Amino acid sequence: MKNRAELFSIFQKFYAEIQTQFNLSIHVLRNDNAREYFSAPFTSFMSQHGILHQSSCAHTPQQNEVTERKNRHLVETARTLLLHSNVPFHFWGDVVLTACYLINRMPSSILHDQIPHSLLFPNQPLYFLPPRVFGCTCFVHILTPGQDKLSAKATKCIFLGYSRLQKGYHYYSSETHRYFLSADVTFFEDSPFFSTSESLPVSEVLPLPIISPPDAVPSRPLQVYHRRHRVAVPPSLAKVPADSLPIPSASPAPALPPSTDLPIALRKGNRSTRNPHPIYNFLSYHRLSSPYSAFVSAIYFVSLPKSAPEALSHPRWQQAMVHEMAALHSNGTWDLVVLPSGKSTVGCRWVYTVKVGPDGQVDRLKARLVAKGYTQVYGSDYGDTFSPVAKIASVRLLLSIAAMRSWPLFQLDIKNAFLHGDLAEEVYMEQPLGFVAQGESGLVCRLRRSLYGLKQSPRAWFSRFSSVVQEFGIFRSTADHSIFYHHNSSGQCIYLVVYVDVIVIIGSDQNGIQKLKQHLFTHF
């Protein structure tokens, strides 16, 4: 609605749509005292159709509380979209329409956590197209036939919402100042179109009231941008205070020679090469002087052994290694066999850690036997290594549901999780140093269970955990393989999230959750 005079025609369309789509009639209309609601055509229409026209008293918005609250809901959602996407306020109309679209497709507490759109249109899907991040960068494909082979195949735009009557997205081109509608779009949802520091003038932001198809976008020649070298500051000048430097006279800066131009890389890796946090330059053990390092070593009475013979010479570390070996033998981790011809062995080593309690006191000494996974050979010692973990979006969603419905949360931590996985490959490992029995020095360990350090250990553990959980009757989600769910006949549910060896269980079926926990305790 561009001006208030259009209100009457919009209400007529709304009235006809209600009658046609839902076979209902409007009995009462309540609004504030805005003038457009009391125009002669509007009042005559209300009288002809027998609609009771109510209005709130002046300066009393609480008499129209439903409308006022929904207006606030729309404004707050639109404000969130604007601030998150850095979209200029000139697009507030698109923001409000997108906010309305999303609100109608989210559970409402007034409707007992049901979705308004699903109640109005039970036979329609919730989304005809997947929802996208508002204000993100998108590239709309140009489908015009007869395009030049070297011309651009897509144009860069900003995503501004959804279409109600067509199966497509709304987007806007800042180059042509036009709105478009298309479903052939490639989205970059992690890249907002407007940066936080970007501010376009009004002439470059305000769209023209023209809607044209995307194939009418003129093609542009390919542009190559260049980055110039930074001029290095001499160390002698870098140490001089700024207020002591002489102010040079105004003169044009010398132009850099063209040979210093460097083309920007077409693709840049995501790996960061930044140094650690600056605090580590002052608060870190490696910054200590030699006397202080000796002092810290003296008061820290537990030292980590550097080798297995050194650990075996200390009774407490020796006991930790014996406990680890006993746990591995009781778990059936390996069998001692003769190495078959043509097979190679994987090395192993001991890793020592000190477990400290909440009060800072030493709780226990831990010795862990790990395999040297870097000595494994692909295709011989291991194959696939991928193991899924829960997506952070799934975790947030389930935690939000648990908070909204006041469900209790149960967190479980599987001890020595990787040791529970069954190995499908034939892997041979050297015997642990210090635990080779007399007469068995020529034997090797044929691994039956996974071991920390093996490349396939995470995959073997998740496969074992998934099979154990599904034995209980829980199904794995197809959208996130680390999410498991169960619904009983009475409508109660259980959701389980696994992130490596950390498990979170939520749901309304408390009896079922206790049985599931007991099932997990039995196997792990």
How do the helices and strands line up, and which of them pair or pack?
Layout: H1 7-22, E1 28-31, H2 40-48, E2 52-55, H3 65-85, H4 92-103, H5 116-120, E3 136-141, E4 154-162, E5 169-173, E6 178-182, E7 185-192, H6 202-205, E8 226-227, H7 235-238, E9 262-263, H8 290-299, H9 308-312, H10 315-330, E10 334-337, E11 345-346, E12 348-356, E13 362-371, H11 392-404, E14 410-413, E15 428-429, E16 444-447, H12 457-471, E17 475-476, E18 483-487, E19 493-499, E20 502-507, H13 510-523
Parallel strand pairs: 1-2, 11-15
Antiparallel strand pairs: 3-4, 3-7, 4-5, 5-6, 8-9, 10-16, 12-13, 14-20, 15-16, 17-18, 18-19, 19-20
InterPro entries: DNA/RNA_pol_sf, Integrase_cat-core, Retrotran_Ty1/copia-like, RNaseH-like_sf, RNaseH_sf, RVT_2, SH3_retrovirus
GO molecular function, one term: nucleic acid binding
GO biological process, one term: DNA integration
* Largest sheet data: 5 strands, antiparallel
Give the strand order, joined by hyphens, for the main sheet: 6-5-4-3-7
| Multimerization status | single chain
Helix percentage range: 25-40%
Percent range for β-strand residues: 15-25%
The coarse silhouette is: elongated
Averaging pLDDT over every residue, what do you get? 84
Task: Report on the architecture of this protein.
It is a single chain. 27% of the residues lie in helices and 19% in strands. It is of the alpha+beta class. Among the domains are: 4-55, no CATH class; 75-216, no CATH class. It has a 5-stranded antiparallel sheet with strand order 6-5-4-3-7. It has a 5-stranded antiparallel sheet with strand order 14-20-19-18-17, sandwiched between helices. Strands 10-16-15-11 form a 4-stranded mixed sheet, with no helix packed on it. The relative contact order is 0.06. Residues 199-273 have low confidence and may be disordered. It comes from Vitis rotundifolia (Muscadine grape).
